[in-house]
């Protein structure tokens, strides 16, 4: 029988179109998966029959196709089973068959093996063994297929298979950073995805414990409620993956930013004032994924217990409610939480207090999961439960572990309902990489680490400060509430204060402690804003900050919370430069508070000059070496530079104050990673733009710039730059930076235009509308330019070039990058900025140039 490839291709295409139409009409995900399998079965059987293969051969479906679940764009996995090695004629036929697979429009993954070859490959590769476990006869020799199945199952050790799949899952989790809360999760492979449910069936099928949720329930592996929840989650994830495949017309399981908005619309979400449609979609996804990870944990533990019953472990009583089995906490009565809901919190307290415990038994976790709805308003109002919750925060150990466990089991969100609202809520603000609840728990973890001696080397300043703070556990309360009002619309800091105050009053905190927690929640963003955006050499800035802080307790608490908060947003956001800015602000505020006033400017300058002279003596320089340079420098220079920087500049320039050639000196930045670069040259047009362009081309990001013009018309500029290309040895770049930048300035070469580079997809799909403002400082002598924009290559060059075109002179620059978001502040003068029309023109032009096309 001849094969009509064109007819089969048309049939495949018509089937796919019909499936999509049926799905859009009926929204029956299960029917779609089954019907696609049935359609492919028919087509493949026709194709097989057309080749007139020997009757001894078998065609079988394996993997997802064998399971009877084919998604719209999934590969079709086939096994061609041979009784023995194929003859040359059969091999040629098989090659033509494989070619026709593609000709008719099916993406086929195939293997051609004998039974023994299948067994050998399965023994070597757990993935192959798993795919073969789901084999289903399509056509051909049924007896050979039965022999294959019998020998495959005969060689299968359920316990070995279980352990292999468990380890495989752990490795898969590691590939996806062990979190279901990725910005762009894979709805199949990420923790909480469909694979977490499939692996359960692989384990239970191998162990003969069932291949449906109902069968697992009947065999005691899952409760009736668990079966209902898994079916609900599986259905949601199945719909999500189906829609993604249909939307793109190809196989894609990642929920990329590029797809999230369109996918959200297909699920009926629309943008509102508080959240984008994509954020609403992802919050629903994260909540389902979180449920799947809990169910996977419970069920896998139950499968393991069924395969390895530990009859020899004798329970050790812990108290009237709990016992220890092995090193796991176990409830002594299945109905404990129904009978005594207060024991819900007691179980987490027991985990904190009993050092030998490493986890909870399956029945304890299952009972906690079932009991989450017992946390009612009456439960929350009970004084004993409130005392127990505070005790969880005040414990000496296990705080982070137990709060994470409480969040995973929905206990935390039920006890703090407003916390429950932000579970799985994504923050598409270009610098948070965690959902709000995960960010809060990261901040909690960071504060906890400040108290632990094993982390003192990593956070020496924080460790010292928190050791001096009374009742540091209050910081955990502030951490729980600092972002709890995200997504409600309005200022989350203001809205969160009401939640924090209610909690403190309800839980009997003193007025003094309540005031501190509420103040921290309200002002948790202030310290980072002042440190990163304002001039810390200005006594008025410090005085304003101190008036807000008031005393050392508030300063210490705010510093610790701010440090933990910034570190808890994203690994990319924190760096040593931000740490130095926070520390500088802390120490200056501390001096102001403890001394009763800020140091006078002339006193600060005298102290710095004296310290700079002391440092110069180490280089055997005379006591008059500084005089010629310092005569050209004003008060602002000495306020903005440290004694060490003043000494470095003086040592480098004292013998070439009237140099005709530029002087560029670089050194490793002493406060952390990166380079510190000094530029000294006769002032020239577009100087800042030239320097910015050079650094961008050389692969450096400017994080701080101090621009100064001497009395005799020279530019003395200082930069701190970070290597964005992560080159291993920064010292090796110093000669290049010094020589190349000197040459560009000497020849007054046109500014290097930075490479445009690529915008991150996050910036493309969650753009930030640029915001630019220019206003006079309090003295009216300079102007402060503030901008917020999506970060991208060449951004700082664009700003520098625009300022130069308008004749504006730059005095200082504070460059703040928060993930993909730039928040920069510049002190500028000149350029007719006193004229409001000129300021508006500059603002408008900057806004236009900062827009992303």
From TrEMBL:
Q: Which reaction does it catalyse?
A: [protein-PII]-L-tyrosine + UTP = [protein-PII]-uridylyl-L-tyrosine + diphosphate; [protein-PII]-uridylyl-L-tyrosine + H2O = [protein-PII]-L-tyrosine + UMP + H(+)
The record's listing under Gene3D superfamilies reads: 3.30.70.260, Hypothetical protein af1432
> Required co-factor?
Mg(2+)
- InterPro entries in alphabetical order: ACT-like_dom_sf, ACT_dom, HD/PDEase_dom, HD_domain, NT_sf, PII_UdlTrfase/GS_AdlTrfase, Polymerase_NTP_transf_dom, UTase/UR
Identify the keywords attached in UniProt to this record, alphabetized. Answer: Hydrolase, Magnesium, Multifunctional enzyme, Nucleotidyltransferase, Repeat, Transferase
Instruction: Answer whether the UniProt record assigns the keyword Repeat to this protein.
Output: yes
Q: What is its EC number?
A: 2.7.7.59, 3.1.4.-
Molecular-function GO term, any one: [protein-PII] uridylyltransferase activity
The UniProt entry, under Pfam families, shows: ACT, GlnD_UR_UTase, HD, NTP_transf_2
Q: Residue ranges of the HD domain? A: 436-555
Per the record, the coiled-coil ranges are none
SMART domains, per the entry: HDc
Activity regulation note: Uridylyltransferase (UTase) activity is inhibited by glutamine, while glutamine activates uridylyl-removing (UR) activity.
Q: Where is this region: Uridylyltransferase?
A: 1-317
Q: Which segments constitute the ACT domain?
A: 676-755, 784-853
Which SUPFAM superfamilies does the entry link to?
ACT-like (SSF55021), HD-domain/PDEase-like (SSF109604), Nucleotidyltransferase (SSF81301), Nucleotidyltransferase substrate binding subunit/domain (SSF81593)
Family according to the record? Belongs to the GlnD family.
Regarding domains, what does the record say? Has four distinct domains: an N-terminal nucleotidyltransferase (NT) domain responsible for UTase activity, a central HD domain that encodes UR activity, and two C-terminal ACT domains that seem to have a role in glutamine sensing.
What does the UniProt function comment say about this protein?
Answer: Modifies, by uridylylation and deuridylylation, the PII regulatory proteins (GlnB and homologs), in response to the nitrogen status of the cell that GlnD senses through the glutamine level. Under low glutamine levels, catalyzes the conversion of the PII proteins and UTP to PII-UMP and PPi, while under higher glutamine levels, GlnD hydrolyzes PII-UMP to PII and UMP (deuridylylation). Thus, controls uridylylation state and activity of the PII proteins, and plays an important role in the regulation of nitrogen metabolism.
PANTHER family on file? BIFUNCTIONAL URIDYLYLTRANSFERASE/URIDYLYL-REMOVING ENZYME (PTHR47320), BIFUNCTIONAL URIDYLYLTRANSFERASE_URIDYLYL-REMOVING ENZYME (PTHR47320:SF1)
Its protein name is Bifunctional uridylyltransferase/uridylyl-removing enzyme
Gene name in the database record: glnD
């Amino acid at each position: 029988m001849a094969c009509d490839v064109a007819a089969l291709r048309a049939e495949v295409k018509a089937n796919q179109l019909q499936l999509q139409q049926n799905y859009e009409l009926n929204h029956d995900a299960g029917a779609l998966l089954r019907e696609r399998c049935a359609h492919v079965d028919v087509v493949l059987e026709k194709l097989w029959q057309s080749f007139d293969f020997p009757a001894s051969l078998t065609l079988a479906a394996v993997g997802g196709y064998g399971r009877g679940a084919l998604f719209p764009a999934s590969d079709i996995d086939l096994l061609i089973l041979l009784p023995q090695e194929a003859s040359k004629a059969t091999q040629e036929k098989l090659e033509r068959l494989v070619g026709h697979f593609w000709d008719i429009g099916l993406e086929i993954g195939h293997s051609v093996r004998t039974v023994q070859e299948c067994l050998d490959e399965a023994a070597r590769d757990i993935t192959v063994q798993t795919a073969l476990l789901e084999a289903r006869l399509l056509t051909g020799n049924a007896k050979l297929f039965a022999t294959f199945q019998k020998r495959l199952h005969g060689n299968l050790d359920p316990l070995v298979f279980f352990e292999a799949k468990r380890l495989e899952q752990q490795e898969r989790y590691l590939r996806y950073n062990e979190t279901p809360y990725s910005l762009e999760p894979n709805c199949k492979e990420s923790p909480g995805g469909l694979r977490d449910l499939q692996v359960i069936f692989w384990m239970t099928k191998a162990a003969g414990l069932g291949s449906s949720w109902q069968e697992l329930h009947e065999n005691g592996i899952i409760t009736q409620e668990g079966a209902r929840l898994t079916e609900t989650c599986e259905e949601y994830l199945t719909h999500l993956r189906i829609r993604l495949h249909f939307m793109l017309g190809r196989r894609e399981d990642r929920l990329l930013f590029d797809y999230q908005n369109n996918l959200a619309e297909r699920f009926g979400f629309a943008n509102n004032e508080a959240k984008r449609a994509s954020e609403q979609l992802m919050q629903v996804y994260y909540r389902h994924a979180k449920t799947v990870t809990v169910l996977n944990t419970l069920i896998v533990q139950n499968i393991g217990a069924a395969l390895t019953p530990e009859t020899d472990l004798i329970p050790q009583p812990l108290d009237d409610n709990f016992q220890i089995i092995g090193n796991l906490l176990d409830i002594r009565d299945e109905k404990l939480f129904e009978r005594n809901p207060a024991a819900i919190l007691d179980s987490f307290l027991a985990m904190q207090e009993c050092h030998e415990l490493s986890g909870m038994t399956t029945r304890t976790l299952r009972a906690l999961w079932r009991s989450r709805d017992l946390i009612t308003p009456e439960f929350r109002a009970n004084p004993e439960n409130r005392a127990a919750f505070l005790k969880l925060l005040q414990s000496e150990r296990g705080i982070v572990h137990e709060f994470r466990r409480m969040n995973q089991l929905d206990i935390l969100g039920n006890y703090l309902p407003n916390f429950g609202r932000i579970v799985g809520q994504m923050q598409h603000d270009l610098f948070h990489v965690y959902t709000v609840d995960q960010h809060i728990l990261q901040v909690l973890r960071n504060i906890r680490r400040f108290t632990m001696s094993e982390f003192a080397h990593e956070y020496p300043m924080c460790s010292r400060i928190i050791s001096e703070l009374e009742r540091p556990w209050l910081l955990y309360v502030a951490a729980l509430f600092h972002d709890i009002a995200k997504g409600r619309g309005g200022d989350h800091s203001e809205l969160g204060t009401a939640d924090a105050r209610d909690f403190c009053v309800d839980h009997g905190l003193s007025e003094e402690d309540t005031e501190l927690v509420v103040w921290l929640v309200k002002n948790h963003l202030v310290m980072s804003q002042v440190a990163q955006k304002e001039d810390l050499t200005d006594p008025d800035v410090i005085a304003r900050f101190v008036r807000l802080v008031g005393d050392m307790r508030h300063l210490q608490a705010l510093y610790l919370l701010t440090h933990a908060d910034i570190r808890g947003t994203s690994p990319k956001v924190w760096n040593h430069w931000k740490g130095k800015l926070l520390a500088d602000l802390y120490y200056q505020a501390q001096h102001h508070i403890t001394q009763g006033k800020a140091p006078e400017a002339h006193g600060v300058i005298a102290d710095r000059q004296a310290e700079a002279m002391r440092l110069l003596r180490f280089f055997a320089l005379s006591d008059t070496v500084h005089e010629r340079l310092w005569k050209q420098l004003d008060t602002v220079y000495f306020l903005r530079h440290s004694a060490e920087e003043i000494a470095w500049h003086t040592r480098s320039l004292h013998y070439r104050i009237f140099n005709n050639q530029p002087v560029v000196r670089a050194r490793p930045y002493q406060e952390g990673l990166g380079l510190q670069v000094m530029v000294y040259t006769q002032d020239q047009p577009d100087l800042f733009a030239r320097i910015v362009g050079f650094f961008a081309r050389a692969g450096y990001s400017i994080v701080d710039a101090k621009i100064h013009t001497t009395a005799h018309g020279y530019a003395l500029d200082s930069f701190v730059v970070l290597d964005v290309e992560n080159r291993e040895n920064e010292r090796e770049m110093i000669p290049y930076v010094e020589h190349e930048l000197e040459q560009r300035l000497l020849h007054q070469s046109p500014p290097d235009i930075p490479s445009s580079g690529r915008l991150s997809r996050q910036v493309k799909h969650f753009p930030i509308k640029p915001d630019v403002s220019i206003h006079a400082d309090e003295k009216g002598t300079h102007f402060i330019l503030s901008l917020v924009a999506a970060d991208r290559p060449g951004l700082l060059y664009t700003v520098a070039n625009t300022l130069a075109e308008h004749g504006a002179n730059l005095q200082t620059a504070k460059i703040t990058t928060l993930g993909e978001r730039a928040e920069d502040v510049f002190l500028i003068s000149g350029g007719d900025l006193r004229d409001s029309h000129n300021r508006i023109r500059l603002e408008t032009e900057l806004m236009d140039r900062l827009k992303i096309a």
